Amino acid sequence: MKVLVAYATAHGSTGDVARRIGSVLEQNGHEVTVREAQYITDVKDYEAFVLGTAIESGAWLPALTEFAMRFENDLSSKPTYVWVSCIRVLEEFGMSHIMEYYMPKQLLAKLNLRSITALAGKLDLKSVDWTERWTLSTRYDGHAWPTNFDGDFRNWDKIFDWAIAVLKDLQAVAIQG
Ligand SMILES: Cc1cc2nc3c(=O)[nH]c(=O)nc-3n(C[C@H](O)[C@H](O)[C@H](O)COP(=O)(O)O)c2cc1C
Question: How many domains does the chain have?
Fold first, then answer.
């Protein structure tokens, strides 16, 4: 299948995750394009979509929201998979909090959504400027201080497992025709 992995990032780490997911799908026979959402102008050729975004201030980055709204018709008719990269997932009950508060429910309801997850991301405070630090300290809604999560928490085994789950679902979709 022709699969588009579209992602939004502020500091680059979600792009690495997108490329890893893309390579798992490609190694298993899919024709994969991995691209930043803001640069995508046409999606007509694709048969499935994998969308990923970093979270800032408890929300998707605007580039992925805008992409999903722009191509809503295509995303509603083809299998679509979504992940978010963030730090809240590292806290207790993080996954349920993210599903409840970080996901744009009205938008997701319009998609042909097959799977959605949250994966631990990377926060490198050295590369975060003072405005972003201010945003992070005032808007992060976890129990711990966000500065406790200064580091790379991406779990490549979990990323691989989710990519395999997407792969299996794509196989199921292909069999169902
Ligand atoms: C300004 C700022 C705000 C953030 N806000 C949140 C947040 O509200 N919740 C959360 O779980 N993570 C938050 N994060 C953490 C990012 O989602 C995480 O570091 C992500 O992996 C960054 O991905 P990127 O390198 O692709 O930009 C924030 C990070 C920054 C820099």
Answer: 1
Torsion of CA 165, 161, 65, 99, to 10 degrees: 90
Atom 15 of ligand 1: nearest residue by CA position: 86
Reading the block at residue 4, the tokens are 């588009």
Q: How far apart are CA 160 and CA 86, in angstroms?
A: 17
Report CA(123)–ligand 1 centroid distance (Å). Answer: 7
**Whole-number pLDDT of residue 19:** 98
Residues of the chain with pLDDT under 70: none
Per-residue model confidence (pLDDT) at position 177: 74
Q: What is the CATH number of the domain that holds 53?
A: 3.40.50.360
Cα gap 147→51, rounded to integer Å:
27
Which residue segment(s) compose the domain that 76 sits in?
2-176
As a whole number of angstroms, the distance between CA 24 and CA 166 comes to 10
